[in-house]
Amino acid sequence: MPETEPSIFTRIIAREIPADIVFENDRIIAFTDINPQAEVHLLVVPKTAQYSNVAELAVAQPELLAEIVTVAKQLATERANGEFRLVFNSGATTGQTVFHVHAHVLSGQLTEGTLAQQ
Ligand code: AMP
Fold it and tell me: What is the dihedral of CA 45, 91, 79, 38, to 10 degrees?
């Protein structure tokens, strides 16, 4: 369900809220999750607020979804060993709290249950 107020991620993109930004181009921003669940826990976020979840994004702009995956791989290579887990919570009952599509990139020594509580 789209939010009426700008999402917290839109406010980070607009520099209204500080964040540890690790990547940015015209289409995508990536920053450290404020509540990390792994040694490396980044959020890769398209700048457009048009899509609330990954299914909507995949239908409308598959190339942007592919770019998110490419950025995730690049960041996991820079910050860990290049291996990573990509999580898209999609819906409130799966733990989604920000309805501006975003990928959680988890890397480092993960255990099977990492992020299970989110
Ligand atoms: P989700 O629960 O999948 O919607 O993920 C939202 C994520 O955004 C959570 O992991 C939060 O810890 C993270 N988060 C919320 N506010 C901020 C913030 N200001 N800076 C960085 N990460 C945030």
Answer: 150
